[in-house]
Amino acid sequence: MERKLTAIFVADVVGFSRLMELDEPGTLASLNAHRSEVIDPKISEHQGRIVKLTGDGLLAEFQSVLNAVACAAAIQRAMAERTRETPQERRMEFRIGVNLGDVIVEGDDIFGDGVNVAARLEGIAEPGGVAVSAPVRDLIGDRLDIAFEDIGDQILKNIARPVRVFRIRTGAGPAGESVGSIHRLFALPTKPSIAVLPFENISGDPQQEYFADGLVEDLITGLARIPSLLVIARNSTFTYKGRTVDVRQVGRELGVRYVLEGSVRKAANRIRVTGQLVECAGATHVWAEKMEGSAEDIFDLQDRMVMSIVGVLEPAMRRAEIERALRKRPDALDAYDLYLRALPHVYANSPDETERALHLLEEALRRDPNYPVAHAYAAWCLEQRYFRGGFHEQDKSIALEHARAADSLGADDPQALSIAAFVQANLTHDYDTAILAIDRSLEMNSNSALALGFSSLVAAHSVRIERAIEHALKALRLSPLDPLNYHPYCALALANLFTERFAEAGTYAALAIRSNPSFRVAYAYLVAAQVGLDNFDAAGTGASRLLEVAPEFTVSGFARMGLFRPTQMNALTSALKAAGLPA
Length: 583
Known about the structure:
This is Adenylate cyclase cya3. The protein has 23 helices and 14 strands.
């Protein structure tokens, strides 16, 4: 057997079967064009030889490891440039693996363990990315201005020993040949994605460096607990420490839609932290905030800041994602985009808006029947329709079906669990089971303003006053501008109504109305509070406003909702009747 040591290069198209299913002739034509115009010329230019084609991939060898890696980087850069304007779902991207190994030569073909490792490296490379083995990284050293990320020992399929793997970042080729940024080294995922960059220490005190780094590490950990969010690990983001970066470049290199950056400053005994969330593609600011506190208990300060930032980022990104989905062409929408488009209509919580939301959510579920959060929101919409649309049993039955689907499919999705629990609590009045489910969701993400808002309402409906107040105030503190803040405000109104603090109840009911002027029950709580204060003129004004929003409102229909225990329901209905609302 003839043997030789060579640099082995394996490339393959990401999701080729899916692309063929979308457009078979177009995909084949595109693959052939990319090969003839980019891949083959680049391999030839870097003194490589194509050993064989493997359907949608290829095997090549290079006498020089340096040339093999420079070629891989050049191909990925060229492909990113060529496909930049192509819609994500139709974009053709390659994975590339490079290994140095001893191979068996048989005619023009090569075989052996070295080839197998290269093929497995290609399999774990990111779309549009390059993965190389440790011997390749060691031989290149500093001869190419290319950054490598050490991702540690990897267990590769059918390879007995662990293989140390590195991913390529950016750089320049030999003899000044610019390889440049691999513009889309990682493809954007369908769900929102974020990288938390190291915060800058601008205090002039080197000892504050540990606080800044610890804050970022805790932020990454806190965000990583949100299943609907892809969060880049610390080892990747800290490669940018001490560097002036362009967030657009960071977004391309890490494959994220958002970047969180910030700074830490200490003056006297105070520490001030600023943070800003940026959408990478347009370098546009989504959210910015500054907060400060005493440095006496620095760990407590760090915990409070992490809670505040993590809590506000989730709804801020949700708003940005909704805006992005609304900008997409109708023919380019997928299930996630349809779900995002439905959210503003769900939040409005009015009959017409609920129907619009349901139409979008049903279309999302047609495209992806196993989408837990779409099931959860569909359940909530049907619950709204049931209570406002005449208590039709079919609406209740289908709502519970969607809620159970959200439970089973979204066991690790706190958003789906909390919405499903809220719906089931309202429709079945099994508050104990609902609270257990919400507590499970809060264990996964204790800083979810959405889950805390639902929790506060379920607690208020079941007269768990302390829990209702605690969770409502925390939801409002975490997300003061949330479109769903009428939930915690209503919970606070109820908690105060049930404890006969009518002035406070009226204030919170008014805040709920300001948060969502279409939400009818907030007007009912305001009317009940004014009756409790013997302020019948104000109660009559509130009753008139309620009937403007919901002309079909009756006290008996409100009572039929059955959301409260008999004592509390009787008190509320008596107050509503006293204000002159229709029986």
